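User: Can you fold this complex?
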Amino acid sequence: MTADALLPAEAAPRALRRARDAVVPATRAFLARLDDTSAAIAAYHLGWTDAAGAPIRNGGGKAVRPALATLSAQAAGAPAQVGIPGAVAVELVHNFSLVHDDVMDGDTERRHRPTVWAVWGSTSAILTGDALLALAQEVLLDSTSPHRAAAARLLAEATRHLIRGQVQDVAFERREDVTVAECLEMVSGKTGALLSASAAIGAVLAGATPEVVDALSTFGAQLGIAFQLVDDLLGIWGDPEVTGKPVFSDLRSHKKSLPVTYALTHGGRPGRELAAWLASADPTGPDPTGVARAAELIDAAGGRDWAAAEAHRRISAATHALASVPLLSGPREELIAIAHFIVAREA
Amino acid sequence: MTADALLPAEAAPRALRRARDAVVPATRAFLARLDDTSAAIAAYHLGWTDAAGAPIRNGGGKAVRPALATLSAQAAGAPAQVGIPGAVAVELVHNFSLVHDDVMDGDTERRHRPTVWAVWGSTSAILTGDALLALAQEVLLDSTSPHRAAAARLLAEATRHLIRGQVQDVAFERREDVTVAECLEMVSGKTGALLSASAAIGAVLAGATPEVVDALSTFGAQLGIAFQLVDDLLGIWGDPEVTGKPVFSDLRSHKKSLPVTYALTHGGRPGRELAAWLASADPTGPDPTGVARAAELIDAAGGRDWAAAEAHRRISAATHALASVPLLSGPREELIAIAHFIVAREA
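Assistant: Here's the predicted assembly.
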């Protein structure tokens, strides 16, 4: 019997749903502080409304970060409510980074819908992202927790690491010699930093010990790397119907994701053929034969197996971190269920 | 004898120089936390280095906001040192907004030098701005003041108002019927909010009473409007040699600044002729005769006199606010000297 079998299959979706139900009204109340334009654009980006402002039922993302933040408070022995400002704040920072990323990458579609800049232009997208980042701090600093300053500091530092990761990602696009270690470091910033903060911020707001905060932080950091590995696998082999992205989307844009980097640096002949394809093929062209062949090469070079195995290793490390400190067992089991859910997801 | 004559002419430049000397090393220490790329771009933008990273002696801006922040702490009876985290933070937020503004406006030059996006591209400019905004919060939350959370909250709220002002500014560009009152409200956000926070944040860090904080905040808010009025006048009639901007620069870009808005809405025949010119002339074309004529029309319509008088009225209101609360007289006189310096400046 594996660890997975001990967890009811519904535990993660239920925890995510619960977090979303709690965090959406709280987020809505804070968005009302923004100017009408930024608030409307944010509501669209969050999946709550269409571009004309009409409400969408059951819209919105998976709420992984809010779920981690509220469970983090609960695991430290506090009510979920104590983690809500953290949950709202990490979700705002996550969405700030998505809105700006789409401008920088020139991506016109996200979650089957046009991106913010594609609808309103890049000026509005930059301003809306800025507003979400500033608002995230306000949410935390308005909380009644005596530990709000520590929570705000944690989030500001995580934002700095997130940006560092994005800067590295941009720099790597122009380099041919990126190692797997460098790529993992970039991912630790770009994806790991905010998931780490999400998993720790509830405990910080609850006044947990440094040991508990550190363990939850490590859990989130490892989970973040697993999350990105799965994202990278889905970016190549994900079902377009489920992911909402074109087939082989990351290969079309020549993205040097983790499986690609592994294949290029460990992949022998298929790796060298992949490098030649990346150097020659036009990233903007359609070339469906070329990208299918590139996907085969990554697989043959071991990039696909390595990424899947590495994701599982990171989930083990994440789970292991939680075993070292006293945490309430119910919330801890739910955190672990979310970790397993993340590696098993299809979109 | 006017109030101006009571102030030694050197008081403001001396206070600004002192603030810059204190804030530059502190800012440098915090910028070292950023990734190397963002730190280098920020050092260039702040005027400390050239685009290749070589140091520039005596570079950098006027340090109005840092001077307000340190004097704010001193006026409330604390050492200047208490205001330094506030001074660094407001300067970082100011520069975040400049870097993003230049991307959004497509401006290729600032302070006689190419803008960040013009040198490194808009992706790096967006990321550097994001990094400066996040870092500003970290600076405050790392301070040893027991009031750091209140100071961080003040700055986050000011950033929200600043962004609201920028959103209004963008919206006004597409409207023909903006009133002077709407324009003043936009300026209260875009320029007033951060100057208001700058003038109050030192007192907040010093643990001053709400009355003292409110008075300093009003001082900064009124000063901000005066600052923008003078900026708008310099944008039309400033000496290109001193401002570093082309002659009539704001008219070339058809910017609906305060003097223009006044002329359009109060200016009778010259105002109507100005409206016709704005509706017909190509904003991207050179047309030196047209812009010179537009400047004459604004003057004839009373826009120039009104803006200059309004700036003085705002400085009076700012000074008046400081008279209502107990403040240390030396720092208060320096705050007033800076206010007068701002309306008298030529760049």
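Chain B touches chain A through 39 residues (CB under 8 Å). Residues 210-237 of chain B form the longest helix (28 residues).
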